Here is the input.
Amino acid sequence: MNFSLCSVPAGWKFAGGVAGIKESGSADLMVAVSDRPASAAGVFTRNLVVGAPVTVGRGRVPAGAVRGVVINSGNANTGTGAKGLEDARAMTRTLAGEIGCDEGDVLVCSTGIIGHMLPVEKILAAIPGVYESRAETPAAVRDAAAAMMTTDTFPKVASREIKIGDGTVRVLGLAKGAAMIAPDMATMLGVVVTDAVLSPETADVILKTAVDDSFNLISVDGHTSTSDTVFLLANGASGVDGEGSAALASAVAEVCGELAEMIVRDAEGAEHLIELHVAGAADRDGAVTIAKAVANSALVKTAVTGNDPNWGRIVSAAGYAGMPFEPTAVSLSVEGVSVYERGTPVGFDEEAVSAAMRDGDRVRIELTVGDGPGRVRFLTSDLTAEYVRLNSEYTT
Amino acid sequence: MNFSLCSVPAGWKFAGGVAGIKESGSADLMVAVSDRPASAAGVFTRNLVVGAPVTVGRGRVPAGAVRGVVINSGNANTGTGAKGLEDARAMTRTLAGEIGCDEGDVLVCSTGIIGHMLPVEKILAAIPGVYESRAETPAAVRDAAAAMMTTDTFPKVASREIKIGDGTVRVLGLAKGAAMIAPDMATMLGVVVTDAVLSPETADVILKTAVDDSFNLISVDGHTSTSDTVFLLANGASGVDGEGSAALASAVAEVCGELAEMIVRDAEGAEHLIELHVAGAADRDGAVTIAKAVANSALVKTAVTGNDPNWGRIVSAAGYAGMPFEPTAVSLSVEGVSVYERGTPVGFDEEAVSAAMRDGDRVRIELTVGDGPGRVRFLTSDLTAEYVRLNSEYTT
Here is the structure.
């Protein structure tokens, strides 16, 4: 991670610390705090079963006066009933007490194991100290991102600094996630902050658009989690109005896109990042549906693990996606080499393509299913024995 | 396999042999032949992309005068265009020549790697010898089933002998499949023969019902293949009328159910058979949709691999299935032990449940999602590092 990229928006401070939730003793508690009220928007998991923090968060955004976010890792506070809800609220109440704001102006997320009561006393006891250590430095941002991690192997931060008219605005995102990742937000948490001036309504539109083109176009294992949350918080400390700024919307989308790619790159046990392009579908939704079927196929993933340009597994996964297309209109290239054209396999240098898959930064798969305008770029990871080991040994 | 169970229907003979398609030199060609015309029905993959034999088969059933089936393993004859279609027809033409019937009265299946032209000359040259060796013995049935195998570790045969009035009727099924298995028929082939008298129309109804309750309720990896086919062939050699016999329909369903369970038990790399019961859904389709989401979750599968009664992964997989239910109405038991009741985890002896998962013949998961009448029993397998190894090393 190149933290020199990190441009911290004005008025925002971050901290990460140890509450003692994780047996490992690693950092497991972070706060992000604004020195003034911020417009806030949120996007949440579409799973029917949700963690307590999701229930709390849904009731608090969009909003115009949010002052901070508190996130713990190590325990997802999911399946914890009424006590879990009270624990989530207590976390916000404690941070609000430190900040000197209403409980309702603090947001909360939790990630980690499911179905165990939060060790809430430890968390509440740790919040003041972590809050006290807050800073606007890249190191503090890094500490905060690290405290969100579960099975992640590196903290995930992305940032942009843009001009709007004569003013400068900063956008900074922190995320976590390495598995239970699927479209519609799966065990991933993201907090994107900016010092632009934005209404809650505009923040909401910008965030939903950005998430739809980033976090909702990645999958590690197709498992939509119960805790997924992304917040966008705009505190206006730059004094620069971001309403109607395409550049700001792009910056938020780019930050989300970078974070999403980091999550796939950090996918549990993964050896390959797979960049899948589906084109020629009837519409974008059709392309997304086909991309998901291909991306979630264990057979496609394991073929990539083996550096095998196995067009049969890719084309047949597209074929069961449930979106109609004409099989004779299907073409496929892997690593830029055409392997299947208009329904028929073509001769190609399998050794060379396999070597490219093995050696490259990512495996590029381009699937065309017809002549329609629907297209999408979708990111996923391969499936390795290490993924299985991680997920069969990580117990309740 | 207990082949003493095998009751061969009258008028049917089987053989398996070596055509030389597989580099290993293992058996890769089988025939099943009736001494008289048989009513025939077929069920095929719903993948948009299908192998040439599926295209040929769809045009030949239901029918009233089928004399035989020829199946090769080692090469699926899929993605092979017009030449593949001609190769599939040539296989039927060659067997028809031996039998002395019309080409259209022979059915064909192929399974194995996708996208390579069939070594059709080898196959056509081998058909007469394999046909010549046909017999009505259990050993011949076993040889035929073995010649259908790809990554299977054992041949799959099931049979029933039933009384209809004063007469006796036999039902015998042969199947293959160990991966690319998902509802709606995925790289699995099945041939069920009987000596009952049946019209093609009744055979069609009996087969579709049986497949819907067996092969369509199993999943190994969620990958619906391009070649899946199950045939039911009734040659009437017993002289016993099976029209309207519930016993015969049950026998066919039981044979299909046994074969389907064998396929899941032989799932590539699997260490656990998972028997998943979903109840309380609005209707059967809803139960099936939820069961598929749970069964295809890599996180659920790897939890079972680790003997972990991880209710969080199971309940959350149900939650993203796309079927509405009330989270507080969800209850779950694993190995008969209640672990989650009406939306809340309950205390249980994790060590004891884990030991039961490790030691038992199968892992039994019972998920209730409400008070509706929709229920289903669904079989799947766990996901192991060995599955990944098999599927990353088995190349095009």
